[in-house]
Design a protein that fits this description.
Blueprint: H1 6-17, H2 19-23, H3 30-42, H4 44-62, H5 70-81
Length: 83
């Protein structure tokens, strides 16, 4: 599999778009899960990205929650309300 071949990008984009669903065990069909697993195994760059995302999620789950300043919360909320 050549990661520089544009024909390779569509499956990568699709798999990477669903990585968070996969990591958070959201509603994916068994076939979708198998397809993502297969792609991550067959495509080292995507597999590396998945490994990074998985480790990051584990660290976030283990970390202590922090309090962010109210001003930052308001700014984030305002940005989210724009979408």
């Amino acid at each position: 599999m050549n990661p520089f071949d544009p024909k390779h990008w569509d499956p990568c984009n699709e798999a990477l778009e669903r990585v968070h669903e996969f990591l958070n065990q959201r509603e994916l069909t068994p076939q979708d899960q198998a397809d993502i697993r297969r792609h991550l195994t067959d495509c080292p760059p995507c597999g590396d990205r998945f490994d990074f995302e998985e480790k990051l999620l584990e660290r976030l789950k283990k970390s202590d929650p922090c309090q962010c300043p109210e001003r930052l919360r308001a700014r984030i909320k305002a940005l989210l309300d724009l979408t």
